[in-house]
Amino acid sequence: MPIVPPLTLLIAEPSRLSEPLTPERIAAFLDHLAETSHVSKSARRAGVTRGQVYRLRSVDADFAQAWADAAVSGYTDLELEMLGRARFGVKKPYKRADGKQGRMTEYDDAQSLKMLMAYKAGLVREGDDRAAASMANLTGARDRLAAKLELIRARLNASTADGAGGDPQPD
Questions:
Q1: How far apart, in whole angstroms, are the C-alpha atoms of residue 90 and residue 103?
Q2: In angstroms, rounded to a whole number, what is the distance separating the alpha carbons of residues 144 and 69?
Q3: pLDDT beyond 70 at 64
Q4: pTM for the whole thing?
Q5: Would you give the end-to-end CA distance of the chain in angstroms?
C-alpha cells in the first residue's frame, strides 16, 4: 500500500527547489535510500528536501517503518559487499617488472579480522555454543601450526648442522 503524506506535506517548501511529496516521490526516496543508505542523496534523487522526508517520518508511522526497512536493507547490502571483499579480495591493477599492466587480488586482513571478531562477539552475546566451539577450533589450529613450524625449524637446524645447507622439504 503506497504511503500518502498528510496534505500539509504535499506542498513544496518555497525556500528550496523541491517538489511536493507524492507517493511516487516517496517511493523513489525509499528505493534510493535502500540502495545508498544516504538520506540527502536519496531526497535529492526524489526531488524533495531532507526536511520534507524528516518531517514526514516524524508524523507518519508507516513511512517511519518503511524508512527503517530501507535503511536495514541498505546496511545489509553493505555488510554483504564488505564480506565479499574480505573473503574474495579486490582486483587491483599493478605494473609488472616487464612494464606491462597486471592484475592482482588484494585482501584487507584487518577488515576481515574486525568482521570476524564482530561476528564472534555477537555469538557470545547471544549465548551461542558455536562461539566456544569456534574458539576451540581456532586454538587447535594454532597449536597444529605451531607444531608444524617447530618441525620445520628442527629440520632446518638439522640440515644446517649436517652442512647440507639445502632447503628443508615441509610435509
A1: 10
A2: 45
A3: yes
A4: 0.53
A5: 64
